[in-house]
């Protein structure tokens, strides 16, 4: 996440504050509504409420302090250390109150480090986790050896835990709820962002940035795949190599920007003339490669002619109404019937046919002579 350390620390401070307010509200309600509750130690709960409010208040101080120090010293990774340690250690207090081996403690011990490692400085999370675990172990074993009570918030803890009383079950889920909401929401948002980003990176890696067509690498990958499919008497496969005519003069006369504009227009024109399963990519500067899967020579000639005409009829209109006329030379090769070439051979022949189109006066489609046509 690209947030500043201070912003992350303030977010964690707000989460800790919200948690302790949630617990304080729970305590207040219990004290008001259920004066004779035999599961909870009412006097103990009343005495602990000030701690719940105290932790909420300290969390607010942490937020304000982080904000003020940021104004003076700028962003510091130290903020993340302080916020993570505060979060981990302050929750140890609550875990002691409700039982270190309870459901909410388990949820925090597993969920918080996972989300923490995604959002926060890893060393800060590691340190907070390590120290909190030590405290948790000490609290658990201390209670086991009866140095201090286990879950002092509850009366008759043994009975409550062993019979899973509705009171305890309800309250364990009540404590766990805010953690689950936060941890699951945070994981969901982060994972969704990762997936979006991954998709963007994937698209960038296969797309030519200027024209938005497949780039050279990805159009060649498609060609490999289609050639593999068409091998061994599979469906026919046609390949078109297109080179824009006299492109250098566009750059020389109107400038490189106009040239770029013309390339985009040419890419659009070619794409417009193709079918859904056809693929067009930018092979080089002003050179394009068109893959026509499942297309025999006759069909490919029709499509090539359509592309040529579409290109010819494309007017690139520049600022001030200046116009550029586009044409292209097309080399066509087809794998069909007994003719089954490898990718390199197809590319070589398409390129040669394209040069013959140039030599023949440009703005035309030439079929590789293996097919007996010129
Ligand atoms: N504006 C712009 N020009 C490019 C780009 N890539 C290649 N070019 C230009 O395309 C031109 C290609 O010129 P040549 O290979 O000499 O061919 P041509 O002028 O098209 O002539 P023929 O191919 O023989 O019809 C060069 O001037 C390159 O600089 C690009 O991304 N943007």
UniProtKB/TrEMBL annotation:
EC number: 2.7.7.65
Domain of life: Bacteria
Keyword Membrane tagged: yes
Location of the GGDEF domain: 235-370
InterPro entries, per database record: Diguanylate_Cyclase (IPR050469), GGDEF_dom (IPR000160), Nucleotide_cyclase (IPR029787), Rev_trsase/Diguanyl_cyclase (IPR043128)
Reaction equations catalysed: 2 GTP = 3',3'-c-di-GMP + 2 diphosphate
Transmembrane segments annotated in the record for this chain: 9-31, 51-69, 76-96, 102-120, 127-148, 168-191
PROSITE patterns named in the record: GGDEF
Keyword terms, alphabetized: Membrane, Transmembrane, Transmembrane helix
SMART domains: GGDEF (SM00267)
Gene Ontology CC annotation, any one: plasma membrane
GO BP: cell adhesion involved in single-species biofilm formation; negative regulation of bacterial-type flagellum-dependent cell motility
Cofactor(s) needed: Mg(2+)
PANTHER family, alphabetized: DIGUANYLATE CYCLASE DGCM-RELATED, REGULATORY COMPONENTS OF SENSORY TRANSDUCTION SYSTEM
Record-given protein name: diguanylate cyclase
């Amino acid at each position: 996440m690209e947030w500043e350390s201070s912003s992350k620390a303030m977010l964690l401070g707000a989460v800790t504050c919200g948690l302790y307010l949630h617990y304080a509200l729970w305590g207040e309600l219990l004290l008001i509504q259920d004066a004779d509750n035999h599961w909870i130690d009412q006097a103990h709960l009343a005495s602990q409420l000030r701690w719940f409010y105290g932790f909420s208040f300290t969390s607010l101080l942490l937020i304000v302090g982080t904000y003020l120090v940021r104004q003076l010293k700028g962003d510091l990774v130290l903020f993340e250390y302080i916020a993570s340690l505060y979060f981990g250690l302050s929750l140890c207090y609550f875990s002691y109150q409700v039982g270190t081996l309870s459901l909410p403690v388990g949820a925090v011990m597993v969920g918080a480090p996972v989300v923490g490692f995604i959002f926060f400085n890893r060393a800060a999370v590691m340190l907070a986790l390590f120290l909190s675990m030590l405290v948790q172990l000490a609290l658990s074993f201390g209670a086991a050896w009866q140095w201090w009570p286990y879950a002092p918030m509850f009366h008759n803890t043994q009975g409550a835990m062993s019979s899973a009383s509705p009171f305890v079950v309800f309250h364990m889920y009540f404590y766990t709820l805010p953690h689950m909401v936060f941890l699951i929401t945070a994981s969901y948002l982060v994972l969704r962002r990762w997936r979006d980003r991954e998709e963007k990176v994937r698209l960038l890696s296969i797309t030519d940035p200027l024209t938005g067509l497949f780039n050279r690498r990805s159009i060649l990958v498609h060609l490999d795949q289609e050639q593999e499919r068409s091998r061994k008497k599979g469906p026919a496969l046609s390949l078109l190599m297109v080179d824009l005519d006299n492109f250098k003069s566009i750059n020389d006369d109107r400038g490189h920007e106009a040239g770029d504009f013309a390339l985009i227009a040419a890419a659009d024109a070619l794409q417009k003339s193709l079918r859904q399963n056809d693929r067009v990519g930018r092979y080089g500067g002003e050179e394009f490669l068109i893959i026509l899967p499942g297309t025999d020579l006759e069909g490919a000639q029709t499509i090539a002619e359509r592309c040529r005409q579409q290109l010819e009829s494309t007017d690139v209109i520049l600022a001030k109404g200046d116009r550029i006329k586009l044409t292209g030379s097309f080399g066509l090769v087809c794998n069909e019937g007994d003719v089954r070439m490898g990718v390199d051979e197809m590319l070589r022949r398409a390129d040669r046919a394209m040069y013959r189109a140039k030599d023949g006066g440009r703005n035309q489609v030439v079929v590789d002579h293996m097919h007996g046509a010129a």
